[in-house]
Amino acid sequence: MINKIVDSAAEAVAGIFDGATVMISGFGEAGSPVELIHALVDQGAKNLTVVSNNAGSGHVGLAALIENRQVSKIICSFPRTTISVVFPEIYRRGEIELELVPQGTLAERIRAGGAGIPAFYTPASVNTPLAEGKEVRSFNGRDYVLEHAIKADFSLVKCHTTDKFGNLVYNKTARNFGPVMCMAAKTTIVQARRIVELGEIDPECVVTPGIFVHRVVEVSNPADESKLVAEERRYPWT
C-alpha cells in the first residue's frame, strides 16, 4: 500500500504536460475540483484536451483554464449555460475546438475507457448531426451509432473523504463522473475535503478504491464555485 498524500495542489498537478488529455469531474460545487484547476492554471500546461460535463461558468474553475488559453479542445455534453461567459466567446472566435457528446454517451465512453472496452453501440444521436461520419449498425431493427471509449493522461477529481491510500467517498452529484474518471486516467489526482486515518472509512462506503488513485491533497475549505461565479470573481487563487 502506498501513501498518496501530497502537500499542496501545486504539487498534485506537477507533471501535467503540454498536449495532455485531462478529465475534470463536476456536477456543481460538490464535484468541481476548483483548487486543482486553479493550480493547473498557475502551472501553465497548454494545448490541453479537456473532458468534462460542461465548459465552465463565470470566470472560475474550468472557465478560468479556458480563459487562460490553456485548452485547445473540450469534449463535453453541456458547453453552454446562462452563466457561461468564457467558452461561448472563445468558441465563436474559433480559438477552441468542441466535441459535443450526449451526456449518457459521455459517461459511458469514459466508463468504457476505464473498463478496457474500446467501443460500443448506442442509439443516442442516431439521425442527428452528432452521428455524421460515424458507423451505424442495426440490431433487432433499431439503428445504433458506434462510439469510441475515452481515456486520459490525467483526471482531476473532487471527493468528500479519503484516507492516505486514496479510498474515496463522494458527496452527492460528485459521483456522476468522479468514479469513472478515476478509472479512465493514467494518473488520477484528487482533492478531498477530509483525509482521515486508515480504517475510519467503512469499506462498504468506499466508491473508488485507492488502486485507481495516485495523488491526494486535502482542501478542507474548498471554494464555493457558485458563489464565486455570482460575485463575478475571476482568479480567487491569487
From TrEMBL:
<dbReference type="InterPro" id="IPR012792">
    <property type="entry name" value="3-oxoacid_CoA-transf_A"/>
</dbReference>
<dbReference type="Pfam" id="PF01144">
    <property type="entry name" value="CoA_trans"/>
</dbReference>
<protein>
    <submittedName>
        <fullName>3-oxoacid CoA-transferase subunit A</fullName>
    </submittedName>
</protein>
<dbReference type="InterPro" id="IPR004165">
    <property type="entry name" value="CoA_trans_fam_I"/>
</dbReference>
<keyword id="KW-0808">Transferase</keyword>
<dbReference type="GO" id="GO:0008410">
    <property type="term" value="F:CoA-transferase activity"/>
</dbReference>
<dbReference type="InterPro" id="IPR037171">
    <property type="entry name" value="NagB/RpiA_transferase-like"/>
</dbReference>
